Amino acid sequence: MDTRFTVLERRFGAPGESTYGKLWLPAGVERPRLIIFAHEVGCTHSRARPWAERLTAEGWALFAPDFRGGGAHSRSDGATTDMSVMTEAADLEAVFDEALRWDEVDAERPVLMGASLGGLVAAICAARRPRRVRAMALLYPAFNMPEATRRDWPNRSQVPESFSLRGWIRLGRRYVEDVWDYDAYAAAVSYPGPVLIFQGGADDIVYPQRTRRAAELFPDARLVMYPGAGHMFSGEYLRDAMEKTAAWLETV
């Protein structure tokens, strides 16, 4: 048993539509401030574990949900073929409201963290609720997702009822329809708070130039570029990003 933090399971929402997640609480801190982590497409709350273990050491609590239909191993309800960026944004907003009920944490103004598709989801939520979001840390955020989707399906009529995304996950037509006309960069313009963004220069899924554009549009953003990093950080890139995030959190 690790005495540095406690891990609690949470499930909320109506039967058949519920969301599951884990809450990491730092030892010895009364009602710590909260970070909410939005995972990559096809993944689960487990992607937040190294971040939770590092940031609880700084006195922060971290909650990571499984998005409904977010992956084959999700413990939340919902089918992957019903999931989209907008359903995940709704899930994240539901976490905002639910966390206010938790006595263990201060969830009045959480920090949002989002990775890849979860980064775009976090930005959408911050734009919708700017007064509720203290700050954002984004990892290779998928601001290019709408244009990449239109590239794969040049005509809406070509989108099938379901399809495989790079062999990672089986998605449905809604995944495309919900972002067909969406301007992802409008979310960047709309959130005035502090933003820390990490991007790999060798990322062939989230294009570095698109992340740079988003960073330029946020009113208060800092971009950290790792020239040799690809998508989904590991090793030294992950360790460095966690250290920089821990230092940045002291300022927000």
Can you characterise this structure?
β3 (33-38), α1 and β4 (61-65) form a beta-alpha-beta unit. The strands form 2 sheets. Strands 1-2-4-3-5-6-9-10 form an 8-stranded mixed beta sheet, sandwiched between helices. Strands 7-8 form a two-stranded antiparallel sheet. It is built from 8 helices and 10 strands. The model has no long low-confidence stretch (mean pLDDT 95). The protein has helices at 49-56, 85-99, 117-128, 145-152, 173-177, 184-190, 208-217, 235-249; strands at residues 5-12, 19-26, 33-38, 61-65, 106-115, 135-139, 162-165, 169-172, 195-200, 221-226. The chain has one domain: Alpha/Beta hydrolase fold, catalytic domain (Rossmann fold). The chain is α/β, with parallel strands linked by helices and 252 residues long.
The Rg value, from CA coordinates, equals 17 Å
Which architecture per CATH? 3-Layer(aba) Sandwich
Distance separating the two termini:
31 Å
Helix content: 25-40%
What class, by secondary structure content?
alpha/beta
Q: Report the order of strands and helices.
A: EEEHEHEHEHEEHHEHEH
The CATH superfamily bears the name Alpha/Beta hydrolase fold, catalytic domain
Secondary structure layout:
Blueprint: E1 5-12, E2 19-26, E3 33-38, H1 49-56, E4 61-65, H2 85-99, E5 106-115, H3 117-128, E6 135-139, H4 145-152, E7 162-165, E8 169-172, H5 173-177, H6 184-190, E9 195-200, H7 208-217, E10 221-226, H8 235-249
Parallel strand pairs: 3-4, 3-5, 5-6, 6-9, 9-10
Antiparallel strand pairs: 1-2, 2-4, 7-8
Helix pairs in contact: 2-3, 3-6
